Amino acid sequence: MLLHIGDKHISSWSLRPWILLKMADIPFAEEVHAFLPDRTTQRRLWRAFSPTAQVPVLHDGELVIWDSLAICLYLGGRFPEVWADDAAARAWSYSAAAEMHAGFTVLRSRCPFRTDKAETVSPDGALSAELSRLDTLWQEGLHRFGGGFLAGGRFTAVDAFYAPVVLRLHCYGLTEKMSAQAQAYIGRILADGYVREWCGK
User: Fold this and answer.
1) What are 140-157's pLDDT values in tens digits?
2) Percent helix, strand and coil across the chain, each to the nearest 5
3) Residue 201's pLDDT is what?
4) Sheet order of strands, 2-6 included
5) How many whole angstroms separate alpha carbon 200 and alpha carbon 101?
6) What is the mean pLDDT of the chain?
7) What distances in angstroms separate CA 173 from CA 7, 57, 165, 178, one per listed residue?
8) Which of 40, 53, 140, 144 pairs with 156 at a CA distance of 20 to 30 A?
9) Angle, to 10 degrees, between the axis of helix 87-102 and the axis of helix 68-78?
10) Considering the entire predicted model, what is its pTM?
11) Are 36 and 44 in contact (CB under 8 A)?
């Protein structure tokens, strides 16, 4: 398998399938593509490997799978262990991953993805509401499924979807806005060797 990704210091979408493949110990090759100032040129070049001229894109033999959620669902078909074993945890994970995929727009806009420290952000009402929802969601998964990760005792696809969020909270000084349980989860993700590898540490 070959995973096409964008610059690691700015491509949160690329981190999702990359960290999932790494954590699941699934062999793959990666090809990193730089974001270009000339987006017309970028789209022309990226269409050689991506139907949408966007990343991430997974090539598995003759199959081409684009979009981070689609890639993680596809991987679940080939490697069921990338999602939770328990049916309830798996169903919850699909919903939580989809919520991240489509939501938290204020957090995305106020805290663009990066891997190094930035100026601390002071949450306004809209951002505070999203942080509250995020905290509630994480606490639900951690409590309900009784493990150190969102859907149980091991890192799964739903954690891959929230790994970029962990980095956002850390880099913009928002970790302390979360509950103690959520902060412990953030610490576990940040300490992971593959997360540190992505960040160049």
Assistant:
1) 999 999 999 999 999 999
2) 55, 10, 35
3) 77
4) 29-33, 2-6, 57-60, 63-66
5) 25
6) 97
7) 23, 31, 12, 11
8) 53
9) 160
10) 0.96
11) no
